[in-house]
Each structure stands twice: as structure tokens, then as C-alpha cells.
Amino acid sequence: MPAQARRIALPRAARIGIATAVTGAAFALPLVTTVTAQAHEVPAAKAAAPAAAPAAQAAPAAAPAAPAAPAEESYKVVGGDTLSKIAAAKSVEGGWQALYEHNRSVVGANPNLIFPGQQLALGTKAAPAAPATKPAAPAAKPAAPATKSAAPAAKPAAPAAKPAAPATKPAAPAVKPAVQPVVAPVTATPVVAATSGYVAPLANPKLGTAYGVAGSMWASGHHTGADFVAATGTPLRAIANGTVVKAGNGGAYGNEVEIKLADGKYAQYAHLSSIGVKVGQAVTAGQQIGLSGATGNVTGPHLHFEVRTGSEYGSDIDPIAYLRAHGVAI
Fold it and tell me: Could you tell me the CATH superfamily of domain 70-135?
């Protein structure tokens, strides 16, 4: 029998199984391809998100505008002023020490010796200027979310300009004390000297600690002068004609003035708040030479007055007896 191709008859169940396997394989291949593609697309999308975030954060905040330098104020010294009083009244940052350092070329080597008419620079007042510059910082922060809308970014800038107006108002009251000098003592009625040409060192003299009182608080063992009750700023005057030989800081005496009188004696005034004469200046009886105060070693304002046979400490005599001997009623 010639060779012929035989058809192998497979049972029905076998044919169904083969067909199912082939179909499943065909269906599984696209499914695997789809899942694989999604697995690659999801990380790519996540990686793109962080890349966008730094880009949004890269926008730099607007730099705050540099604050304008405040104008420097000045003050004209009047009778009764001291550096400490001026620094306190004008709120000078750093106190009288900073005021002195800022005006050393005007005041000179002695910070306790200032004269009416001197023009002092008060320097920069940091405390009032600070509020004017701080509102500018918040104005820069709203600029970051301004990427969504340009209109809201312009509105916060308006409040920043308003605080600048009050900053100029305190400047007006600051100059008022400078134009109100105490001139009453200078325009007082001229003092009439006694027939001997002598007067008391201040008007209406009232004695405090007397001359010669013993005590360990004085280097010589006793009080070398006479104290007169006098509030700070009381005008002091030359007791007779003479020449100024000292006008400055005297250590424990504070601000002092010493006048060589025509008879060769020396009249010394201590603890002054202000000095109104200079060394070498000629003065007459009753002429104002300064203002009383509490500089040096003191417990309160008063005038310490001495009369000496020489210019230096230790040559003192009783000042009250000396004045009375020259016709001055005390």
C-alpha cells in the first residue's frame, strides 16, 4: 500500500485544550507589554514632579531696599548744660560717653567742661529709626507667591510706605529744647557789690556744712571750705575783681573755677554743672562764672566755696570770715 499522509484524529477534548492554550498565550503577551509600559511611565512622571518644584522655588525673594541713612541732629549748648543732661534729654545712644567721643574736637580734652554756644552733633538715634525700616522686610515676603498673580504683589508695597511718615514727625519736637535756652540767670539784675567791692558767691546764700568741720571723709581731716545750699543750675558769681587761674575738671572737686583776687587770695568754686569762664579771663565782682551742680565727689548738688592763701589744696582759710571782713552779709 503506497505511503499516504495520515490525518491523526485527535479527541475533541485535546483540540479544545490546545486552542485554549494558544489563545491564552496570545492574550497574555499584550497584557505583559501594557503593564511593562505603565511601569516605565509612572517613575518618569514622578521624577518630573520634583524637577518642577525646585524650579518654582528658584525664584529669589525680592531683596529689601537699603534703609536711608537718618539725618544727623545737632544741639547748641546753653547755660546749665552738661554732656550727661544733653545725652539723657536727646536719648543719645551710648550716653554722654558716646556724645563726648562724637564731639571731642569741639569739647576738647575735658568732657566736664562745655560752654554755652557750642554746637554738638548728637549722632544717629538708632531706637527711633528701627521701626521705620522693619516694615520693609514683610513687604518682600508676599513677593514669593506673586508668581500666580502680579496684581496682589503690588498691594503689600503700599503699607510699607505709610510707616515712613511717622518717622519724620519726632524730628520736630527734638529741636524744640535747643531753641529754649535758660537765659534768665544771664539777664538777672546786676549785683551791687559792698563798699569794699565784694559780694557773696551766689544770691540769697544759705550755709550748709560749715568750714573746719572735722571728719575722716576729708583728706585734710576737716572741711576746707563752706558749703552753700544750691540746686543744680544756680548762677555763681565772682566775689571780687580778679583773674581766672583754673577752669576745668578738678578731680574730687568736679568742675571747678578758681579766681586770683586783687589782694593775692584765691576764691575756689567746686562741683559746678557748667563753667562760663576761661583761664586767663579777667572778671569783676558779681560777674557770673558758672552754674552750681553735683560733679565730683558729692552726695547732692551744692556749692563748695573756698578761700585760699595759695592756688593749691591745703592753703585754705575760713571763707565766711573772709567775706564778712569785706562787708558781705552772710
Answer: LysM domain (3.10.350.10)
C-alpha cell at 50: 520634583
The pTM of this model reads 0.45
- The confidence score (pLDDT) of residue 329 equals 92
Contacts by 227-230, CB closer than 8 A, 24 or more apart? 227/302, 227/303, 227/304, 227/305, 228/201, 228/202, 228/302, 228/303, 228/305, 229/302, 230/202, 230/292, 230/301, 230/302, 230/303
In terms of pLDDT, which residue wins out, 213 or 187?
213
Amino acid 55 reads: A
> Over 80: is that where the pLDDT of 43 sits?
no
Residues of the chain with CATH 2.70.70.10: 185-330
Instruction: Check 223, 302, 304, 326 and give the catalytic one.
Output: 302
Active-site residue 304, yes or no?
no
Which amino acid, one-letter code, is at 292? Answer: S
Mean pLDDT estimate for the chain: 71
Paired with 222 in beta bridges are: 214
Say yes or no to pLDDT of 124 above 60: no
* Pairwise CA distance, residues 259 & 257, whole Å: 7
C-alpha cell at 79: 547755660
Class of domain 185-330: mainly beta
Q: To 5 degrees, how large is the angle CA 220–CA 224–CA 226?
A: 155
Window from 159-168, 244-253, 275-284 with minimum mean pLDDT:
159-168
Return the ∠ at Cα 206 (arms to 200 and 211), rounded to 5°: 80
Q: How far is CA 153 from CA 57, 67, 145, 161, in A?
A: 17, 21, 8, 15
Residues of the chain with CATH 3.10.350.10: 70-135
pLDDT at site 193: 59
- CA–CA dist 189, 243 (Å, integer): 23
